[in-house]
Design goal:
There is one protein chain. This protein is mainly α and 162 residues long. The protein folds into two domains: 64 residues, no CATH class; 84 residues, no CATH class. The chain has a two-stranded antiparallel ribbon. It has a two-stranded antiparallel ribbon with strand order 3-4. Helix 1 runs antiparallel to helix 2 and helix 3 runs parallel beside helix 4.
Length: 162
């Protein structure tokens, strides 16, 4: 263990590595937020930016320093994620309902989403989490295909007719 001094609060702390220069994440975040200079003009937009930077730093420090707040916040995040996953599963089920675009297979467990243009793919749809509007936007770039046709399209044995 190496005795180090925090660059922000000047507390002495022990570190296993020589690279650590802050005693905690909150000290690091205060330093990081100080790098963002709020605008000096006194316009409505400048005040809005200053308020947002202040609120982000305040909430970040509150999250790291207040255990009750952190526990309550994590419960709310888990609840929101469960709600998003349930909504996304319904949206994906509606996407799979018509069946395969090539052969007509209609069993939902066999259907997958094929990105028509791989370059526009933002994230894999196998993750059920995330914002519902992002999942909808991603599904609009896709065509429902059964697993057999999906593999044949990627192997270039058959092609999608637009």
């Amino acid at each position: 263990m190496i005795q180090k001094t925090c660059r922000h609060c000047l507390k002495v702390f022990e570190s296993e590595t020589n690279r650590q220069i802050y005693c905690s994440r909150s000290c690091f975040m205060v330093y990081r937020n100080s790098l963002r200079e709020p605008p000096t003009e006194d316009t409505v937009e400048a005040r809005r930016i200053r308020d947002r930077l202040y609120m982000r730093a305040y909430m970040r420090n509150k999250f790291h320093d207040d255990e009750k707040f952190r526990a309550k916040h994590l419960v709310l995040v888990k609840r929101r994620n469960r709600r998003n996953i349930a909504a996304n599963k319904k949206i994906i089920a509606e996407f799979k309902a018509p069946g395969c675009a090539i052969c007509g297979e209609s069993d939902p467990c066999c259907i997958s989403a094929h990105h028509v243009d791989q370059k526009t793919k933002d994230f894999p749809l196998s993750r059920n989490g995330g914002a519902t509007h992002k999942v909808i936007a991603e599904l609009q770039k896709c065509v429902p295909l059964c697993e057999n046709c999906h593999r044949k399209v990627h192997a270039k044995k058959i092609s999608l007719v637009r």
